[in-house]
Amino acid sequence: MRAALVDREGRIHGRVKAPTPAGDVMAALKGAIEGLAKDDVINDVIGVGIGVAGLVDRRAKRVLISPNIRSLDGQGFEGLYPGRTLALENDANAAAMGELWLGAGKRFPSFVLLTLGTGIGGGFIHNGRLLDVAAEAGHMSIDKEGPKCVCGNYGCLELFASARAITGAVVKALEGGVESALRGLYEGNVYKLTAEDIFKAASDGDGLSREALKEAGRYLGVGIANLINLLSPDAVLLAGGLTGAWDIYVAEAVKEAQKRALKSLFESVGILPASLGDDAGVLGAARLVLEPDSA
Amino acid sequence: MRAALVDREGRIHGRVKAPTPAGDVMAALKGAIEGLAKDDVINDVIGVGIGVAGLVDRRAKRVLISPNIRSLDGQGFEGLYPGRTLALENDANAAAMGELWLGAGKRFPSFVLLTLGTGIGGGFIHNGRLLDVAAEAGHMSIDKEGPKCVCGNYGCLELFASARAITGAVVKALEGGVESALRGLYEGNVYKLTAEDIFKAASDGDGLSREALKEAGRYLGVGIANLINLLSPDAVLLAGGLTGAWDIYVAEAVKEAQKRALKSLFESVGILPASLGDDAGVLGAARLVLEPDSA
User: Fold this and answer.
1) pLDDT at B12
2) Are A261 and B131 an interchain contact pair (Cβ–Cβ within 8 Å)?
3) 3-class SS of residue B276
4) Which of A9, A149, B96, B200 is the most buried (most CB within 10 A)?
């Protein structure tokens, strides 16, 4: 759980980060908010914006399902601070809103934001507004006969292009006996390897790491091409930990997307890093409180 | 080429249908329009709305690329009737607009329209407005290692779920020696078979025809699930010739989409036939002239 006190201009006056509790989410959220907006500052708070990893019912201010934080399933937020504005959004949608307001999205009327981490999230901006849709780009199937995903679908983009997919592919190769510098880490316990270890090994020239990142990047490119053909955005902004491997993973994705997307659409799209880092979500959520009509 | 004279209430006062000329498109279009709006009626025409199979630059009123009607590539329409409103849209987008105005889409604030014919087109309505995006749903890859499509992408939905895909699969099976009542048609010339022949044989119980329709339907379901996960529409409206095989092809698509789409999104989506038939496109194009802010 990440919270911030944000003013009308998007300046951040304080941040907290805490594990999302398995139990009383509302109490934990109130605690975080009141820790940030101390004493009479709380009286000046005009509203609370919340970004949640999962599907939300924006109107009912309720989480429909949060596959990775099951304590949030069905959680309603309507009663949090009665009388103040409450905005509830998917976390990647909120991040897209943040990038539109103050980040790399400022100069693009329409863009797709992809958050590339353990999983893959999406947020769509169209003509300067957030599209209030699911935007679950990570759960778009790019392989109709592919393996089953936790979401119920098969062959999801996330299964091939996320950090979890990359570490999974590397571990499988190591189990299969492939040589790699990665074996030298964690006293050979390959199950401890992280995506960061793989980036680092790749930039040091490790063949397996490079191949795993390139393959995941190629699949990301399939997903990006689909989004370009569907939404013809002005830009695709990429956020999240995996963008640290820009020169290998993202470069491969761009190459693949160029090969696949409709030519006249690809020619007018920029594929660029997002710029707000971990603040994108809280800033976007704040923006949705300040300007409810921005979605 | 299909043209109609439409009034402010969406009543159609005349229709023409003619082959799209390989040569002077503007002259042919003017001919069609003036054939419909005879004598001084032309003076009352406030504008012309055009739907084109392909990618368009709406602002420049220019076709970017029309893969099936190459004479339209790069065609500009700005000078058609100077001083009158001109709207240029993709044909499936125009059809979505038509269904929103006067058809099955009237009761859904947000829906996806898919046109299921030789190829597959898409149009997206969001909160009562046409999303002015490419919406090339037929060119979303659902098979990252799939065969190459004319569009440049690989594994496009259209390659697996369109009428062309169905006839292709049937012909291949017949060439391979599979038994089917279809062999009795066209004195055994299987290359003359149409999707309609296959529907008819399927409803007469022909096994190959049923299998081909079901398989294509299953792939359509993969595409529909992707669109649900991305756009969380209130409805998916299906138009075009293939909807004639609703009980086999579409039924299979619905079953597959239900298996794959995020549960809480699928529960709130209707999958229904569009209602305007071939008039959807001309009505939608007319609506874009009458209400330019509807997109």
Assistant:
1) 96
2) no
3) coil
4) B96
Q: Which two tokens stand for residue A178?
A: 């492939």
Rounded to two decimals, the pTM is: 0.96
Bridge partners, residue A14, by sequence = A5
B67 pLDDT more than 80: no
B118-140, pLDDT tens digit by residue? 999 999 999 999 999 999 999 99
Q: Which of A64-68, A219-223, B195-199 has the lowest mean pLDDT?
A: A64-68
Q: Which of B64, B145, B262 sits opposite A152 (nearest CB)?
A: B262
DSSP code of residue B188: G
Neighbours of A19 (CB within 10 A): 7
What ipTM was predicted for this assembly?
0.96
B154/chain A closest Cα distance in angstroms: 7
The yes-or-no verdict on residue B1 having pLDDT over 90 is no
Choose the mutation target among B145, B229, B294 for the interface with A, i.e. most A CBs under 10 Å.
B229
Query: Which domains are seen in chain A, by residue range?
Result: 2-97+278-294 (3.30.420.40), 108-274 (3.30.420.40)
Question: Does the distance separating the beta carbons of A259 and B229 come in below 8 Å?
Answer: no
Q: pLDDT tens digits for A235-252?
A: 999 999 999 999 999 999
- With beta carbons under 8 A apart, name residues in chain A contacting B228: 134
